[in-house]
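Collaborator request, handled under Task 6.
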Amino acid sequence: MIVVNTETVPGRTIVAIKGLVQGNTVRAKHVGRDIAAGFKNIFGGELKGYTELLVEARREALSRMLGQAQELGANAVVNVRFATSSITAGAAELYAYGTAVVLDEAAPPPMQPPPGP
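Structure tokens returned to the collaborator:
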């Protein structure tokens, strides 16, 4: 399945719009990550535990969104966006959404002339 954050796919035509698709997940912070984050706040640096948490959340939200697109018979999702929001003091939602579409079949590559002598 093609997934893009643009409104179109270069070289392809949208032949049907299946509708809005979305996926989300709510993740809570882990006590171990909070302790490590506390030290990083003092000394500076990347909060790798939180980075990993957000990577996992994006993958899960994207997977759920693509599942909806497949159920609708789409072969692509265009205009994909991600949003986050705080749910409670220790949890955040990651939300992925886009428009499920059907693209025309990929055109074969143009014929190349044979190499000259």
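The cover message to the collaborator said: "The domain at 2-103 is CATH 3.30.110.70 (Translation Initiation Factor IF3). The helical segments are 31-43, 48-71. Please let us know whether this matches your experimental observations."
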